[in-house]
Fold each of these.
Amino acid sequence: MTRLTSFEGRPLARPNDDIEDQGLAFDVATILSRRRVLAGLGIGAGSIALAACGANGSSSASTSSSAAAPSASASEKSYTEMVSETAGPYPGDGSNGPDVLEESGIVRQDLTTNIDGSGKVDGVPLTLEMNLIDMTNGNKPMANAAVYVWHCSAQGKYSMYSDGVTDQTWLRGVQVSDSDGLVTFKTIVPGCYTGRWPHIHFEVFTSVDDISDSTKNVLTSQIAVPEDVATAVYQTAGYDGSTDNLKQVTLDTDNVFGDGYDQQIPTVTGSVTGGYTFAIDVPIDTTTAQQVSMAGGAGGPGGPGGAGMPDGMPSGMPMPSGTPPQPPQ
């Protein structure tokens, strides 16, 4: 069988492997290459689905225009940079053990399965729309940025880390922002485990060339699940234990959100029966160094238990080898 050495004019990093197994950087470059061609034909990003082939050969990455794009007067608005937060001990970006960002297929919109399309997880449907704003460029949309999102399941488990799911990659994925600075993910509302307010993690990289190196992200932060959404969702099947865990923490006592969370609460539409949409602005100043904020809430630095591990970490969650005890993040 003859093996290709190039694809669409680009040399293959792994000429002995199939096109869909060339890795994240190749997938993202393919998206951008096709986007440029379509732009040249006058086809807007909001009217098409831009796709990269996942491991199962299906269209796995797309963008959406359903989130509100920055208004014409966005450059005149005064933005405060989104607060930086810890990535926590379960990022899956190579900074603490496993690295999903090197895997082909991670560029996808639907996070509810493993990157090969298997192992679908259940939960109340959630569409997450993130509007990236480049503060250093007159508050214009941050186009072609790579955004990595991850969070726990309805049962509070993290793929790649929790007992029984270390070989799973669900609820993790990357999208590339369109010309309006928008990325959209299809996922589920995360559960609530003891010691933390329910949340979604994300990292932003300005260049697709940097996505495989977690130290090159320009923003690491978290999005808080609004209380009314969490209260309604946790009364549904599949979120066992989340209602009781939620009663033990508030946004003000949470060890991450306790020092302020106004920027990290999304605008919500939808319902528990039809699914929710979270929309959030993410202003980023690439000229400033990130300062990770840690509040003194329960189980956090300065809070009860100091930096120790609170009881009831995400279900079946072991600490990665060699990692000192720390609060859940």
Note: The chain is about 10% helix and 20% strand.
Amino acid sequence: MSADPRAVLTRPAPEPDHTVAYGDHPDHVADLREPAVSEPGGDGPARPLVVVVHGGFWRSEYDRRHTGPMAAALAALGYPVAQVEYRRTGQPGGGWPNTLTDVLAGVTALPRLAASAMPGRVPDAPPILLGHSAGGHLALYVAATAPAAVGGVLALAPVADLGEAYRRDLDSGAVAALLGGGPDEVPDRYAAADPQALVPIRPRTVVVHGERDRQVPVAMSRGFVAAARAAGSDMTLVELQECEHFGLIDPESAAWPAVVDALRSLHEDHRRIDAASRSR
């Protein structure tokens, strides 16, 4: 592993197996990776589709390509994977509300699109959303807004409290750029977009956060998970003592096994729920 935790952002990864469009804009696309293995038995694919929602503080400088190493590693573990793209701040159409509604549209469409592109490899069940940083915020937003479309959420160092992120001035005004101002200026947008204001979140959720995270302080996840649980959400917080922000998306990091374990726990919940629904 590189001594620079940001090295994962530019590390080469295998090309995706397919790229599909969920809308008309050039950024309304997702890269698909076929699962390398599948579990024997059963009447369909054992592992759910994982939709990866990339971070980068919603800014145009960061796109889905930096999640390539993680997506390839997940596919190697047997998960069908979709890396969804969306319009971001700093480009035409990015920011409020399109950044949020793009991801919502992508998540809603991707099970069908992935099943068509990868026949027999994608189960007929809602996907698990895996979002990192700003992508964690977007995954939580989708889960709160369209819970029936989501089979579970793995939020890695999510920006889960937009009001607090604005007050802390994370990434030099990233939240204001997304929503067009602060909570006092555009309160309706914060009410509609902030996971802290959208609890309870119905889909099962695991939040993983490193205690050494300097980009998104772990205190934000502690406060969010406490509020979500108090409101009735089925949510777990996993804190990693020796982890910073980028190790959570790096398959070569010491944090990666904890990320995989969290995904597997959601996968098992997903399978139990799917089995129960099939038996009705």
Note: The longest strand covers residues 205-210.
Amino acid sequence: MSADPRAVLTRPAPEPDRTVAYGEHPDQVADLRFPAGTGPARPLVVVLHGGFWRFEYDRRHTGPLAAALAAGGYPVAQLEYRRTGQPGGGWPGTLTDVLTGVAELPALAAEALPGRVTLAPPILIGHSAGGHLALYTAATAPTTVGAVLALAPVADLAEAYRRNLDSGAVAALLGGGPEEVPDRYAAADPRVLVPVRTRTVVLHGSEDQQVPAEMSRDFVAEAGAAGSDISLVELPGCEHFGLIDPESAAWPRVLAVLRSLHDDH
């Protein structure tokens, strides 16, 4: 593993097998990766990338993760969406893009990967801001989501705003703070959208400097108390980027949780 945890963000990965569009905007697309080997059709795994919803970060930095999942036999889609700093990004476009993409991708992938993908609701893997989007989608459109694996998610937007994570990232997404646009927080913040009916596992590293693990502890405790089917796996010594790095010490735990969600699904 590289000494720099961020190295995964720029590590080369194989090109995707197909790119499909779920809308007319150039960023309303998803990269598909065929599952290795042969076998029965499986539910799609949809990867929602992080980057604090900002335009500077796109789906390409999840290439190593997606390629590793495909090599493990999973059909994978890396969903792109409009982000803050570009026309249509932020509120509400970022959120509606993900809702639309998640709903449409199983059929798009089944057509592109005949015999390898079922039409069952997909498993969502979201990292950081993508973890927020996965939790939001499961809470808002639960029939479109089979299960959620949230990796270091921004699970509490109001708290992330108060902590000023990534220098105002939440305000850029929603157009202000909780006192300025309370209706938007009410609609988009996973912390207030509990209980979550979709099976959800949150993984978080204890040494995360980008999204404090405390946020996931508090979110999972509150969501569980409200009756959610949710659990937390905290990884001692793990930082933010190890969760999406197939070369990290944390990766076997990520795979094990995904396997359990897939088997249950």
Note: The radius of gyration is 17 Å.
Amino acid sequence: MNVRARLALTSTVLLVGATTSACGGGAPADASEKDFCDTQSSLFDDLLPEDMANPELPSNEEMARAVKDWGQELEEIGTPDGISDDARAGFEQLVEQAGEIDAADFTIDQLEELEQGGADASKAAQRQAEAFADYLTETCGNPLDGIEMPEMPEMPGATE
């Protein structure tokens, strides 16, 4: 699995996994949009390899530690004023999910299972996770858009 795919899957798992968590509620509700967006994207910055020409994927333990640390940062920063109630609830679910993650959650079998897990969540939890994902994209953009990936070498015999 390449770096971009693993980061994308990690963010999907967290958003889907958030739909299965109970609500939290302790994060501030007056963060600046800049601080909020910077904190949201910091997970990807922390996990990206320094040398993208020869990327080394983080271990499952490193991924779990990074997600837990990121969840704590999210909780400290909170959300901007004016976020909808559903999006705020989705944020709180994400923070809680990040705090509960461990290395075993990053095995390929577990990632695939978690990716499908949102279907079992309540409709309210699914709506909240989707509202937060929409709010995040509208407010901050897609955190993977700014990631420059190395060009893939051409495969011998491949045709366009």
Note: The radius of gyration is 16 Å.
